[in-house]
From TrEMBL, chain A:
Keywords: ATP-binding, Nucleotide-binding, Transport. Residues 4-235 form the ABC transporter domain. One of its GO terms (molecular function) is ATP hydrolysis activity. GO terms for cellular component: ATP-binding cassette (ABC) transporter complex, substrate-binding subunit-containing. SUPFAM superfamilies: MOP-like (SSF50331), P-loop containing nucleoside triphosphate hydrolases (SSF52540). The keyword Transport applies. This is Spermidine/putrescine ABC transporter ATP-binding protein. InterPro entries: AAA+_ATPase, ABC_transporter-like_ATP-bd, ABC_transporter-like_CS, ABC_transpr_MalK/UgpC-like, Mo/tungstate-bd_C_term_dom, P-loop_NTPase, Transp-assoc_OB_typ2.
UniProtKB/TrEMBL annotation, chain B:
The keyword Cell membrane applies. GO terms for biological process: transmembrane transport. It is a multi-pass membrane protein. The keyword Kinase does not apply. This is Spermidine/putrescine ABC transporter permease. GO terms for cellular component: plasma membrane. It comes from Mesobacillus campisalis. The chain crosses the membrane at residues 7-31, 56-80, 92-115, 143-165, 186-207, 242-263. Residues 57-263 form the ABC transmembrane type-1 domain. InterPro entries: MetI-like, MetI-like_sf.
From TrEMBL, chain C:
The keyword Signal does not apply. It comes from the Bacteria. GO terms for biological process: transmembrane transport. It holds the Pfam family BPD_transp_1. Signal peptide: none annotated. It is a multi-pass membrane protein. It comes from Mesobacillus campisalis. This is Spermidine/putrescine ABC transporter ATP-binding protein. The chain crosses the membrane at residues 7-30, 67-87, 99-120, 126-145, 178-198, 230-249. Residues 61-249 form the ABC transmembrane type-1 domain.
Length: 346, 278, 259
């Protein structure tokens, strides 16, 4: 059994619509797991169930084989970082960080030492006597993290902790969070809807859609092998076309073109998909070869480092990114190659 | 599931105190006015059949209406002036408006006794100038009640309006002017419509306030210009007519609610018209 | 610019209307004549002394202070938790309950006092002073609900949630995290409720009797039979009190917070 287990969690705010539908998730000790998904898919709700801020209508929540489903939030001893940071405005940074320890009635010198250590780890030594109002966004972020970490939580929960920071700081802070998390070996759940942020920081990613987890895998696996159309779309696959299965590794498109795939797919999957980057515009190939289609350029968009073409083909309109080595004009006829090892069937 | 009840437990003391000491007392005085053996409206019918009572009722409504109107007329331009002043100056003007509001209403009514009385400022001045030979009867008139009530409620109207007018940006006025409207027209066409919500809120406060006021009519109205509140007090104490006092109490409550409702309906109408023309 | 001058004159006249009567009171309080005169002949401070010699003024002043203070405290004790519950919990019929808490402002003050007198004092035989206290509690409650309620609504709710995750019970979170951050709202509602209770007449009108008279009522009774400058002097003292309170509020909260 994994360190953290969510079993068949169901949540409904209004007793009509289920926001989470029999959600299952297992997290190993020391892992950083991200919940990734579009707005409103239930990421925050899942995190709040874990924290104990919401009681699930059904299902169980276990940590270290202990059933915590009915344990109230203040007894769970998890650290939580909110999007708004939620620092206590009336307390100094030091008092903010010491808050949880004081509640635990620890000895004063123990508290002082722990607070000092965590302020050092998070790079806040100088700021202990200031009030939250006197800090920058990135500093507040660190205080929120320090306050959650100092109680040595079994679990660290972060709800879009970086979304209020500017782009540069966001990258710096996510590296920082990852460093501290692995240094302390703390099991963490990280909510985000930013794909890059999520992939760079996580050991594993749960892609959520409308209250269910569509795929739970390592970032590499999700990037390379999305299991469902939703996941594929969410992580940047933009070309989808219907296929019929001929045999293992061999598919046929509506116009009769044969597509070979080097990988094994579940037999009920029927949609081919590929990233715009992975399609090549080729010359010198007969259009009736396998894995190729011919088409006409409809739209050209300049993307900076490359051009994006929208190409009308017998299997549908396809988006293709190409470098500026050869620039095609609207109306040009081209042949597209969809490599067998890049074709995904979902 | 005791967790679920906590929010209601926290509310309970307040709710219970309100029920025990506001609702129950009100019921206890109003309930008997509907019973005389069996259910009856006789007390209310006879109240409104009596010319003297009806006279007091209409006087109260009339005075409240005039006071509200005067407060709007004096308040809107003043509030507009305050809201357009530089920030520092505005703070001072707001404190000046707040000061009378926080000063006891007996003091504020008393000021008008010294002004309007037989040997008061106005009569002294006019007689000194030889304009009149006999002192005018200014105090203990409807006029005295009106001026005293305006004096009482004008600050409230101004403060309510400033809150709304502050949110109208100067640019809107400037835009109106660049379109060729002179300041007065811009004021009438732009500021007035935008301040309607403030005028409505302020008017509700002033109207219901005047209608139920006790201090000012008591001090400035004398015995001949009785209003509902003073009438209630008279009935209960001097005449020992508790039943009658209770009838007036309900009349006052209902009148207050009706006036609030009316003003809100008017406000709704105005809003709709604004939408149609826009 | 010409139109602005018209507006300026208009506003000037309105402020003159608001302040000249009060100035007249100030001036008359220094007059030597035994009835109020304006303009005054001679100058004396005697009338201020007379105010303090008048036992009924002094006693009713002390009573007014106590009733306004305890009425406000009671309203805070009951109202702050209620305002918190209304702002933070999903309460069934929330808007109705909130209107109910604000309803003492809709019932005319004289009627509040009258019904309390009839029910509490006459029927239930409560001491008059308890009825008076309850009446003033009713005046104070809406201010607490409104001002404290809006302060709580403006407070970021996640600071409470974070304190729970750090180990606070709901009660501890309220005491350690909510209360310290709504002190300005509590203070503002205290000032508002106290001032309004202190100045209120209609509610106390029925609820007074021998030895139980609030200052404004006592002043009003005095005016009915007397027309001497000690009334002016007391008025000036009350105005000074207002100035002091306004100064305190301005220095602590800013006057904008109560207007
Ligand atoms: N307190 C609530 N009462 C009713 N519905 C709610 C409540 N909180 C969230 N919801 C609904 O539940 C769904 C999931 O919300 P949740 O906050 O978990 O989304 P999210 O994935 O965190 O989205 P975001 O990325 O925008 O933060 C949404 O449709 C939302 O409208
Ligand atoms: Mg969220």
């Amino acid at each position: 059994m994994s360190y953290v287990e969510l079993k068949d969690i169901r949540v409904s705010y209004d007793h009509k619509n289920d926001i989470l539908k029999d959600l299952n998730l297992s997290i190993e000790k020391g892992e950083l797991v991200s919940l990734l998904g579009p707005s409103g898919c239930g990421k925050t709700t899942t995190l709040r169930v874990i924290a104990g801020l919401i009681n699930p209508n059904d299902g169980e929540f276990l940590v270290d084989s202990q059933n915590l489903t009915k344990v109230p939030v203040h007894k769970r001893k998890f650290g939580m970082v909110f999007q708004s940071y939620a620092l206590f405005p009336h307390l100094t940074i030091r008092e903010n960080v010491a808050f949880g320890l004081k509640l635990r009635k620890e000895k004063k010198n123990v508290i002082d030492q722990k607070v000092k250590d965590i302020l050092a780890i998070t790079g806040l030594e100088e700021l202990g006597d200031r009030y939250p109002k006197q800090l920058s966004g990135g500093q507040r972020q660190r205080v929120a993290l320090a306050r959650a970490l100092v109680i040595e939580p079994k679990l660290l929960l972060l709800d879009e902790p970086l979304s209020n920071l500017d782009a540069k700081l966001r990258v710096a802070m996510r590296i920082e969070i990852k460093r501290i998390q692995s240094q302390l070996g703390i099991t963490s759940v990280f909510v985000t809807h930013d794909q890059e942020e999520c992939f760079s920081i996580s050991d594993k990613v749960a892609v959520m859609n409308k209250g269910i987890i569509e795929q739970f895998d390592t970032p590499e696996e999700i990037y390379k092998n999305p299991k469902t159309e939703f996941v594929a779309r969410f992580i940047g696959f933009e070309n989808f076309f219907q296929l019929t299965r001929v045999e293992e590794g061999k598919y046929k498109a509506g116009d009769g073109t044969i597509f070979l795939s080097t990988r094994q797919w579940e037999t009920d999957k029927r949609t081919g998909t590929i990233r715009p980057d992975d399609i090549d515009i080729v010359t010198g190939t007969e259009p009736n070869e396998n894995n190729t289609v011919s088409g006409t350029v409809k739209v050209r968009t300049f993307l900076g480092k490359s051009y994006q073409y929208e190409i009308e083909t017998p299997i549908g309109a396809l988006l293709v990114n190409e470098s500026d080595d050869v620039i095609y004009q609207v109306g040009d006829s081209v042949t597209l190659s969809i490599p067998a090892h890049k074709l995904i069937i979902v | 599931m005791t967790q679920r009840r906590i929010p209601y437990l926290i509310l309970a003391p307040g709710l219970i105190l309100l029920i025990l000491f506001l609702v129950l007392p009100l019921i206890s005085i109003i309930f008997p006015t509907f019973f005389d053996g069996g259910f009856t409206l006789a007390h209310y019918i006879s109240f409104f059949m009596d010319d003297y009572n009806v006279g007091i009722f209409w006087r109260t409504i009339k005075i409240s209406l005039i006071v509200t109107l005067v407060c709007v007329l004096l308040g809107v331009p003043t509030a507009y002036y305050i809201s357009q002043s530089p920030k520092k100056w505005r703070g001072l003007l707001m404190s000046l408006t707040l000061f009378p509001l926080l000063t006891n209403s007996v003091v504020r009514s008393f000021a008008w006794i010294t002004i309007l009385g037989q040997g008061g400022v106005v009569n002294n001045t006019l007689m000194g100038l030889g304009v009149i030979s006999e002192p005018l009867t200014l105090l203990y008139t409807e006029f005295a009640i009106i001026i005293g009530s305006v004096y009482l409620f004008l600050p409230l109207m101004i403060i309510t309006l400033v809150g709304i007018l502050e949110n109208i940006e100067t640019e809107i006025m400037e835009a109106a002017e660049t379109l060729g409207a002179n300041r007065l027209i811009a004021f009438v066409k732009v500021v007035l419509p935008l301040s309607v919500p403030g005028i409505i809120v302020g008017s509700i406060l002033v109207f219901t306030g005047t209608m139920t006021a006790y201090t000012t009519p008591q001090l400035l109205g004398g015995n001949r210009n009785i209003m509902l509140a003073t009438f209630l007090y008279q009935n209960a104490t001097a005449l020992g007519n508790w039943q009658g006092a209770s009838v007036i109490a309900l009349v006052m409550i209902v009148a207050t609610l009706v006036v609030m409702k009316l003003f809100n309906v008017v406000a709704g109408r105005m809003d709709k018209r604004g939408e149609v023309s826009a | 610019m010409r139109k602005q001058i018209g507006l300026k004159i208009f506003a000037g006249l309105v402020f003159a209307f608001l302040f000249v009567p009060l100035l007249i009171i100030v001036v008359t309080s220094f007059g030597t004549n035994s009835t109020i005169q304006f303009p005054i002949q001679g100058f004396t401070l005697d009338w201020y002394g007379k105010v303090f010699e008048n036992q009924s003024f002094v006693n009713s002043f002390l009573l007014s202070l106590q009733i306004a203070f305890w009425g406000t405290v009671l309203a805070l004790l009951v109202g702050v938790p209620a305002a918190y519950s209304l702002a933070r919990h999903s309460i069934f019929g929330r808007n109705w309950i909130k209107s109910f808490f604000l309803s003492p402002t809709i019932v005319p003050g004289l009627v509040v006092g009258y019904s309390l007198y009839q029910f509490i004092v006459i029927q239930l035989q409560f001491p008059l002073i308890q009825g008076l206290l309850l009446g003033h509690f009713l005046i104070c409650l809406p201010y607490v609900i409104r001002v404290v309620g809006s302060t709580i609504e403006q407070l970021d709710g996640s600071i409470e949630e974070v304190s729970w995750t750090l180990g606070c019970t709901k009660l501890q979170a309220f005491m350690k995290v909510v209360l310290p951050n709504i002190t300005s709202g509590i203070f503002a509602s205290f000032m508002l409720a106290f001032i309004n209770s202190f100045n209120n007449i209609p509610v106390s009108q029925f609820l007074s009797g021998p030895g139980v008279t609030m200052l404004p009522t006592s002043l009003m009774n005095y005016i009915e039979y007397n027309y001497d400058p000690s009334v002016s002097a007391l008025s000036v003292i009350l105005m000074l009190g207002t100035v002091v309170l306004m100064f305190v509020i301005e220095k602590t909260l800013g006057l904008a917070s109560i207007s």
